[in-house]
Amino acid sequence: MAAPAMSAAPASRATSRAAYAVAALALLTFLAVPLVGVSNNAIRLLLTTFLWVATSLAWNLLGGVTGQVSFGFAVFYGLGAYTAGLSINGGVNPYAAIAAGGAVAAFGSLLIGLPTFRLRGPYFAIATIGVNEAVRIVMSNLDITGGASGLRLQQTGRFSQVEHYYAALGVASLAFLVSWRVMHSPFGLALRAIREDQDAAADVGVHPFRLKLAVHALAACLTGMAGGAFAHYTAYIHPDGVFAFTTSTSILLMPVIGGLGTLSGPVIGAAVYSIVQEEMVVHFPQFHLLLYGALLILIMLFEPGGLAGLWRRLARGLRGRNAAGTGGGIAAQRQPAGGGS
């Protein structure tokens, strides 16, 4: 009876080692991409994908791991973008400005989370929509942010797309490492307990309110850094862009496509979303949100685990088929021997 448990642990360790090897190989490949003469358009697409990967992984910490569905992550993306933009215009080093964007977004998450985490389920989700719109309207009417005209960043040096590429890759890698650390820690275990049953988690010593505030701040910080890197790259930001509800919807949609609560799902979802968005915006500029909504409904109906869940299901099916084939082969080999004896 103990044999399956003993064989499961080495199999799990082997899977983890394979995942680490794939992640390290992917990082080395992306580091080498600008050195092998890839086109500027491909660099731009990868840069955008890295920023979406960072926001997708960040949202997944709150929505996928903790089970708190927020429609307001554009607030943190916008706060990070505007903080970085204003800091750069004030003469701050761009990378310090990106870090400052993450810090301000984390602080903002505490102000938002203190009242909204008193709510649960759909009430929390609706509250985040209201906060998103309220912040967007306020930011559209502040003189310091440029108001509805937006904010143009003052670039002092020569524009280097490769430099921005590596900045975005750095933010995405940081989000991946933070997510991995959280998911393999007692903190992540407590977050999963909150997702499954908040009251039961509280009964065994978990403090749901504090932990939700903590993971909210962590996710907001990563999202704010992605917003800061975006502002540094585009050199122009607008409240109806970085604070838009469509931005919040996009950030939510990517981990749902890839697979909630997993590490690979948000990465896959962000990559798929970036590529599909390129085509949709070109061919369906007025209907891409409708298509996103239809895609979301189809995934929730037929594959709630997202693309990562679909891949796991296919892998299990292949392993089962191989095991059945191996078992059938062994039985076929044993049958003549048994008949001879």
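The above is record 1. Record 2 follows with the same two-line structure.
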Amino acid sequence: MNKVQLIKLIIICVFASVVLYQSHKVEAQEPVQLPKHAPAKTDGQSLVVQLCDGETNLEVKGVGPNERLDPEKAQTVSNQLMAQWLAKQPKEVAEAWLKESLNARTEAKTTTQENKASTTGQEQVVDFTSRDYKSWERELAKEIAYGDQIFHDDKLLGSTNGVSCAMCHPHAANTHPETYPKFQIQLRRVALLRDMINWCIENPSRGAKLHPDDPKMRAIEAYILAQRKGVVIEPGKH
């Protein structure tokens, strides 16, 4: 190889390196640093529970900042916080929230999940056996049941103050998983359902957020989605 050929080869290598570097930059996006609520004001002597909006909070007198509420007390605190939040909402928003919560309570699902291989009367041609379906139904039911358990159990959820998901969202009411992904003001970006689950874990419940592949996160998502079975999917709806 003569000198000219060597220079050409070096130029080609440098150019190729630049192209590869630029393409790598496009693919490898930096992790997004999510915003955090400013902590609520406190005298440092009492537990403060804060809702997802970062504005509604309640100081629980007689309970230390690192103490855990028993379920009954946690539900009372959750009710008081929700009452505060609803009082700040437009009348129609508050009424819609309360109506859905009431419906969820009175129409609590029996959790029987039927995994039929037909839709609107049109049979789907498949090679699956009834044993396959039974196996899948069993696995799905287990996942949903585990999510149900976590949703109602503050300790399983990882809450540090005794507040569970169900205390603000009875039977997953007002979670609306069918509207995700959508832009969420709190997060300042398009959020997935799991993003909002973590947001609620970190804020009212003061727990550590779950990895997207954490079995608990997967189960909670399965449970919430199962409660909205049959609802039309409308990503982006507010």
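The chain has a mean pLDDT of 85.
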